[in-house]
Amino acid sequence: MKYSNVLFDIDNTLINSADLIASLLKKGADREGVHMPLEEYRQRIGRPGQQILSEFGVRNWRRVLDRYMVGFDESMNELTYFKGIEPMLNALLAMNIKVGVVTSKDRVQFDKEIGHFPIIANMSMVTTADLTRNPKPSGDPIAYTLARFHLVREQTLYVGDSIFDMQAAKNAAVDFAVAAWGALPDDVFKDAKYRAETPNDIVEIVQ
Hints:
GO terms for molecular function: hydrolase activity. Keywords: Hydrolase. This is HAD family hydrolase. The chain has 2 domains: 5-16 and 80-206, 3-Layer(aba) Sandwich (Rossmann fold), CATH 3.40.50.1000; 18-78. Helix content is 43%, strand content 12%. It has helices at 18-31, 38-42, 49-55, 61-74, 85-94, 107-113, 118-121, 140-148, 163-172, 199-206; strands at 5-8, 98-102, 125-127, 156-160, 175-179, 194-196. The radius of gyration is 16 Å and the shape is globular. The relative contact order is 0.19.
């Protein structure tokens, strides 16, 4: 095998959720009197919500995130895996590949939002944003995962849909595959080693 470990981002890599997240953050910020175009939020998905809101000048970001959690929970039935994700994850597990997630969600968000996706919820390797001082695009969350789960850096692949995911992989010195099925079409992934057009491409990359 080319890789023994595959780590994934969650939003818009495994789950088709970025549009919902962007919409809920915008609605919350609008209530606080901060008006930014929806596309500005969408371009920043992959970073913690607190960072996005703070960058836009939302002072009461905690209140926005509290409302976001309620709205997200009410909209859970809208969310699905991308087509091909479940077969891809099952194929990797059948190959004895260690599979985990490194996400910009904190643990409370992860536990609340991922219960509807048991394959992710039952992963033994989960790194949430509150486990390191610096979230993505810092390499700290991936480096933390390597150390905590005793993963060999050269045998680890990180898969994500955003520029922030690519930067995190580069900063952690692990190979990166862009999940093109969830990525924004205009983003340029110059530091990606692989471009996966479909989830099954990840299985082929690992072999």
